[in-house]
Amino acid sequence: MRIAVIEDERPIREGLVHILNKISPEYQVVGSAENGREGLILLEEQDPDLILLDIQMPDMNGLQMLKEARERGSMTKVVILTAYSDFDYAKKAIALGIENYLLKPVNLTELKNTLSKIKEEIFVEQRGKNSLSLETVIKDALEGEYEEDSRLEETLLEKYGFSGRKQIYCMYLFMGKYYDSEQKEAELFLEEFREHNPDKKMCWLWREKKQSVFICFYDVKAKKILYSI
User: Fold this and answer.
1) Tens digits of per-residue pLDDT, 57-108?
2) Residue 204 φ/ψ, nearest 5 degrees
3) Is 204 in a helix, a strand, or coil?
4) How far is residue 110's CA from residue 108's CA, in Å, rounded to a whole number?
5) Domains of the chain: residue spans and CATH
């Protein structure tokens, strides 16, 4: 999990970075900033999974930064760090979408529990995104596990331009004993073909047990689609 620390007090900022590096190797600190303006730049450059964000900072405070980040479309997870127990701060922060609200000095156990919970949330969210990949849908279809779902079909159409109601051209390429030795070269060829033929929407699925690759062309606008291979 990639984490950024935005805190104006240097000892606290550096202390948090040190603690995060010690808690778990899975927590990677990608940068730190001392005010909201620097924080916005850091957010844009590094796109962290999580921000530990102080509220009271000079130049631009944490709530102002968070508000602007949300307006820019950032959905990065945020944990607010503050010495203020004023409920008004918490209410404003919650309205902007945060994961937790921790009082300084930060309790180590509470910080660990918060990080662990957020890491699990990110894992679940990412797994959900992966389940909507074309490769996953094709794999399920090949294995007889695909179930029709109107919401899934709408998402695939919106995200990929893929519709099971349109013609789909498929190629099953058996590689046999050359599967392991030639897979990287074949992958490169497919990537280059897709790059040089942007009008041809395609995806592919490697089938290790079958020593083959399943190639799928969709949203096809012409019958002859392989002439330029």
Assistant:
1) 988 989 999 999 999 999 899 999 887 665 677 777 778 888 888 888 899 9
2) -150, 160
3) strand
4) 5
5) 2-130 (3.40.50.2300), 134-218 (no CATH)
Give the β-pairing of 2-6 and 50-54.
Answer: parallel
Instruction: Quote the pLDDT of residue 229.
Output: 43
Please report, for residues 201, 217, 226, 227, the alpha-carbon distance to residue 170 in angstroms, rounded to integers and kept in the order given: 12, 6, 11, 15
User: Is the N-terminal amide bond of 105 cis, ω within 30° of 0?
Assistant: yes
Band of residue 164 on the pLDDT scale cut at 50, 70, 90: low
CA-closest candidate to residue 81, choices 72, 65, 73, 70: 65
pLDDT in tens, 120-132: 888 767 655 555 6
The secondary structure of 53-100 as a DSSP string is: EESS-SSS-HHHHHHHHHHTT---EEEEEES---HHHHHHHHHT--SE
